[in-house]
Specification:
The complex is a heterodimer.
Chain A lengths: L1 H46 L13 E10 L3 E6 L2 E6 L5 E3 L5 E2 L9 E8 L5 E8 L2 H4 L4 E13 L2 E8 L7 E4 L5 E4 L7 H4 L5 E8 L6 E9 L11
Parallel strand pairs in A: 3-7, 4-7, 10-13, 11-13
Antiparallel strand pairs in A: 1-2, 1-6, 2-3, 4-5, 6-7, 8-9, 8-12, 9-10, 12-13
Chain B lengths: L1 H39 L9 H10 L6 E4 L4 E3 L3 E7 L5 E5 L4 E5 L5 E7 L3 E10 L5 E10 L5
Parallel strand pairs in B: 2-8
Antiparallel strand pairs in B: 1-3, 3-6, 4-5, 4-7, 7-8
Classes of the chains: A alpha+beta, B alpha+beta.
């Protein structure tokens, strides 16, 4: 009898505690997993109006493109042949081309917009502001050309010259200037236009195409690549 | 004889239970880290956003000139900012916004930092690097200046 009791005690010692620890440990782990998952879900749901996982630590971004798809929940934007998804929510401010407050229904496929917001973890945009923006209003058709002046002529008050670019010696630009055209050296020191716009001078020219003629450009700034002539003292 | 038999059973039982208990304990310990992995396995691990990859593509479009700040497609609340980047050393750097132009030069290490003033709204900024032999490299980035709170 003593041995049987002893045997049962041994069984108790080895098996029961081990099973108890095991079950309580796995139960507590499961509970922690569940509570942690629930908490994380709550945080994500509570912080964002849409169910997409948003990372708010990133800085705000803006994207310009044309609308290729539009629905109540999202807009697909074509940005230089790459599509970007804008997630929509009730917090978004819509602005039309006249800078007046607008609404989603006023935006159509093909329209170009500037969208501002934060990038979600899935790469979509958590959109906050959508502004109707025409392509023409944001394009920058200014060019920077480095070349040599080959022909200078006077037109009314301001000189016109021809520039042969170093990168394409077969091409040439006919460039107009006016009183607003700045002439400087590379250290931005102002120079007289008559010292810069001369034949054989190497220059960097910042130009825009003329509205009247695509053949002629207007120079907003001419930067001399040669140092300014130093005044010579008389003998 | 009976005593020996009982003793043998008990010893056998103790040994058997001991080995089984030890085996189960070892198994439990080896399973524990796997469970921990499950706990910490993140459904919310932040993945690298697409914008970062876009940033790299945009800023490394030319090997000759790289813009490090601001990031492409940045939305800034101040009209004053600086274009920071790397080009071949001692290059002339010309920065053109839709309405302004800015001149600078890269240093002996090729670094440059040129203050600029942004226009309101979207700015398509062109950055040109010109070396001593008048070779020219261009990159462009979009930066938006807006004071609107988003």
């Amino acid at each position: 009898m003593f041995f049987i009791i002893n045997f049962l005690l041994v069984l108790n010692l080895f098996q029961q505690p081990a099973l108890a620890i095991n079950s309580t440990a796995s139960a507590s782990v499961d509970e922690k997993v569940e509570s942690l998952t629930d908490r994380l879900k709550q945080i994500v749901k509570g912080d964002t109006p849409t169910p997409s996982p948003v990372s708010k630590t990133n800085t705000p971004k803006s994207f310009f493109g044309s609308i290729i798809q539009i629905s109540d929940t999202q807009i697909t934007l074509n940005i230089q042949n790459q599509s970007k998804t804008l997630k929509l929510n009730e917090k978004i401010t819509y602005i039309d081309a006249k800078r007046q407050k607008s609404k989603l229904s006023n935006f159509k496929v093909g329209q170009t917009i500037l969208a501002m917001g934060y990038i979600n973890d899935d790469g979509s945009i958590d959109c906050r502001r959508i502004i109707a923006t025409e392509s023409k209003s944001v394009e920058n058709n200014t060019q920077v050309i480095t070349g040599k002046i080959v022909d200078v002529s006077q037109s009314q008050t301001s000189p016109i010259f021809v520039l042969i670019p170093f990168q394409n010696k077969n091409g040439q630009y006919q460039i107009k200037t006016d009183a607003k055209t700045e002439t400087v050296d590379i250290s931005q020191k102002k120079l007289k236009s008559t010292d810069v716009i001369v034949n054989s001078k190497k220059v960097i020219v910042i130009i825009k195409p003329e509205t009247q003629s695509s053949q002629t450009f207007y120079a907003s700034k001419i930067i001399s690549l040669e140092s300014a002539p130093t005044p010579t003292s008389k003998p | 004889m009976f005593k020996e038999l009982i003793l043998a059973i008990i010893i056998g039982a103790i040994l058997g239970l001991g080995i089984t208990g030890g085996y189960m304990t070892m198994q439990h310990k080896s399973e524990t880290p796997k469970e921990k992995t499950v706990i910490t396995e993140p459904t919310l691990i932040p993945t690298i956003p697409d914008s970062n990859s876009n940033t790299k593509e945009t800023t490394k479009s030319s090997e000759e000139i790289t813009i490090t700040s601001p990031e492409p497609d940045s939305l800034l609340s101040s009209e004053k900012t600086s274009i920071i980047g790397i080009s071949p050393k001692n290059n002339n750097i010309i920065i053109v916004t839709p309405t302004n132009s800015f001149i600078g030069k890269s240093d002996d290490k090729g670094n440059f930092q040129i203050p600029i003033t942004l226009d309101s709204g979207l700015n398509l900024i062109k950055i040109t690097s010109i070396d001593q032999e008048n070779n020219q490299k261009d990159v462009s980035i979009n930066i938006t200046y807006s004071t609107a709170k988003i």
